[in-house]
Amino acid sequence: MLELLSFGPGGWGDEILRGTGVTVAVASLAFVIGLLFGATAAAAKLSGSLPLRLAADTYTTVVRGVPALLVIWLFFFGGSGMVTWVAGLFGYGGRVELSAFAVGVAAVAVVSGAYAAEVIRGAVQAVPKGQIEAARALGMRRRLILRRVTVPVALRYALPGLGNVWQLTIKDTALVSVTALAELMRMAFVASGATREPFFFYCTAAVIYMAITTLSAAAFRAAERGAERGVRREAGR
Amino acid sequence: MTMTDSASPATAAATPPAILIEDLHKRFGDNEVLKGISLTARDGEVIALIGASGSGKSTLLRCVNLLEVPDSGRVAIAGEEIRMTRDRKGVTRPADRAQVDRIRRSLGMVVQNFNLWTHRTVLENVIEAPVHVLGVPRDEAVARAERLLDKVGLAAKRDAWPSQLSGGQQQRAAIARMLAMEPKVMLFDEPTSALDPELVGEVLRVIQGLAEEGNTMLIVTHEMAFAREVATRIVFLHQGVVEEEGTPEAVFTAARSERCRQFLARETRW
User: Fold this and answer.
1) What is the CATH number of domain A21-185?
2) CA A84-A85-A88 angle, 5° bins
3) pLDDT at B41 over 60
4) Which of A138, A227, A233 shows the shortest C-beta gap to B133?
5) ipTM of the complex
6) Do residue B132 and residue A140 have CB atoms under 8 angstroms apart?
């Protein structure tokens, strides 16, 4: 059975490995870009501007309210058209084709960002007001307060929630397989069809997903411990 | 406005007051908390603001460093008036945020709940503003912080986290953090109200020491014995106005205001 996973013409090991690489790449890029979307949307939600708040609320409500698969289809069928239209505005006449990889990253980032936005907003709101006020009273400027107080304190509140968003993001990348992007889920599907061993290949994929999520959950726990420095009481005290 | 910064007795009359407050008004919704308050603090004065809860004494203190923005009136620190403007809705706000940030650097503030940054050690709390606001080199800031921690009796706690300190220790660390900016005026907003009774003394002793060094202070407090001993002047607020003002001796023994006498009788009953 295991020769099915060998690296070479007869086995699917190299394809599965490459698929795993694509999955990790899509998830990582989408998560990081999603964090930017999420931080921007959270800033808009917490801003005094009504139009900005409405825009951010619309984004998170709509994207969290529809299936991720639907968002991916919208980007797949609408993405190229949209980019072609924008390119047209800048005087480019031809049709722009987006790669399945770019479409996948963009779609998953948009979904990931909508969830991250709520996590980040909650974390920023959880920062004790007095700690911000202490900084203002010492004459610290807004930017400095954001960088030295708000972000480090909010990070501690945000990390558990962001760990959750990361897990969702990894799993959402599996949905991108519908666009035939050669990520882990797609490779398992192709190998299953070619070898007529679907159970074996889907189990293999499951083990790989579990490995990725378990390892990254451990990484997040380590990061949480780092961010709790000074706050969590030491044992024995 | 430019004024020479001199505290010598000969020019004392010409020196602008450390804090000048004129006809200050502040409302929260329908509740007018400050109804036209004027107050002057000269260099070296220690003013205790007393009064019942809700009399506006904390709000007044917070208006001095613009943590609350007054609706109208003037605030001038060492002769420099904080410029105000109104936005389209008629809400007052500082005209120049940079001016406010600059003035705040000369005003130290200590509040009831200490508000140390929980993600930084005691020493990091103390050097934060000197390093990042004033641009003091780190070694210099650390050396100064160690002297200040020694002064407030926390030399041994320099590497402790705020969560590992008692309330009294946290408040003394907060005082060291304020002192690290070498403020010209110190504002204390009920510095001992959040402390267990047995921890109040250690904090009051530190504040008293600062008063004896000749620092200019505005102290909102419920500790009447402390106010009487440390303050050079007592200001009694009642429902947003200055009801009584004078030396501790005059206010505590011969207040003209009936309300002030009643308040003091209640507060000093024990």
Assistant:
1) 1.10.3720.10
2) 85
3) yes
4) A138
5) 0.89
6) yes
